[in-house]
């Protein structure tokens, strides 16, 4: 008899990085790498599991910015060229490594991998990876949800309810347009929750969301079941599911978790940096900037600089062992919880999707083995979704979750500290002005409507949590600062054009073409009380 459940959730998100003015934008490679190393491998694994009629459930959160980029013709044309170059490079590597058996074996793996990825995406799905997600949704084994429009960090941008409402409403609109149905749940960006935001989720029909562990444990009432059952938010009735620390650490931690195993592929050794410039120059940036190609020949080996050749068979075996270990630990955990609780516990294990494949190369293999083992090798627990759990247990304790995030130290510090605090005075002022414009123009002619819609796009893009996060981590800081300033400046120019009754049709048209996210946005989502 099943004693409990495991809820696996993968949150897939990237900021909107689309630069039609430059075919070789470094930041667009974030998307290309994620498609090649994470999204295609994950979809392939889940598709095979469904075709093999494996009994599994998995939740995937697809952010509106990611959905938009995967549907963008310009970006997908560029990605096609990118993948073709990878196939070409992998074929050259077969020749270069022909007298190096260990490396040649790995080169064969990459050539097969890139070729299969190309056939999968551009032959089977005609360049539309979203179609693969639609098919997975139709199987009933994968529950798709979404997040806020541009992954805005609600606790800090949401001093006005209109900002929260717009982020939620536009995110749900994109999901509905893409998948023909509203999402049942919403991933709050960075698990960032503040009391009252659930009331906005209720307005848009959201049944559940996720918080970090302390969001549940420090709720207004002591949670009877800890994080192993959801809480209903009073006033909204929206369910809050809390993250389980134990299962998260086993996968997240590079030091204590599975991804740090010596047999797994070393992320930080890539031929884009290792090989002679004349050989690799056609496959890096045209200006000679070395960057990751995705072809890496070494395993983690140890903490030092010395690295041994990667052995794919060893790594796959280790992924199977770790999947078995993860399953065993959940068995013992759920058996214990079932003894002390009067209901079947649910262990919530959410992860960034990009961990699986991009940062942890063997992550998709781990998921494949795990989801096959669970229904076959034990009878203690099954995988489930939040929707299915709420169907089985519609009655839950009511309490207000505590403010939280899943960032360092658990609250707002990652997105509000000395490197990024300067952005909020501008975001808050722009937010006030957007509400002012929406209230001032409840209806408008075509040009005014276009200006207002673009103003809404620029504000949403400026609010992306990614820019503050990048400033904090110290990577690509110049780009994050530039993006924040550009969107705020674009918004401010539109604001004064509207206030002064002026127009700049040529500039507006160029802006609409460049920042073309959310083509069906309606600025009136910012109207007070809407």
Write a brief caption for the model.
This protein has helices at 28-51, 64-70, 73-96, 101-124, 129-139, 154-157, 161-179, 197-203, 213-217, 245-252, 271-274, 277-280, 312-340, 363-377, 386-392, 423-440, 446-462, 465-473, 477-499, 505-514, and strands at 4-12, 58-62, 142-147, 185-187, 208-211, 231-232, 239-242, 346-352, 381-383. By secondary structure, it is of the alpha/beta class.
What can you see in these coordinates?
The chain has 20 helices and 9 strands. It is an alpha/beta fold and 530 residues long. Strands 1, 2, 3, 4, 5, 6, 7, 8 and 9 form a 9-stranded mixed sheet that branches. The longest helix is centred in the middle third of the chain and has 29 residues. The model has no long low-confidence stretch (mean pLDDT 96).
Question: Which short descriptors sum up this protein?
Answer:
530 residues, alpha/beta, 20 helices, 9 strands, 8% strand, globular
Mean pLDDT: 96
Number of strands: 9
The general outline is globular
Estimate the strand proportion. 5-15%
Q: Structural class, judged by helices and strands?
A: alpha/beta
Helix content: 40-55%
- Report on the biggest sheet: 9 strands, mixed
* End-to-end separation: 48 Å
Number of H- or I-type helical stretches: 20
- The secondary-structure element order is EHEHHHHEHHEHEHEEHHHHEHEHHHHHH
What's the gyration radius in Å?
24 Å
Q: What are the segments in which pLDDT stays under 50 over at least 5 consecutive residues?
A: none
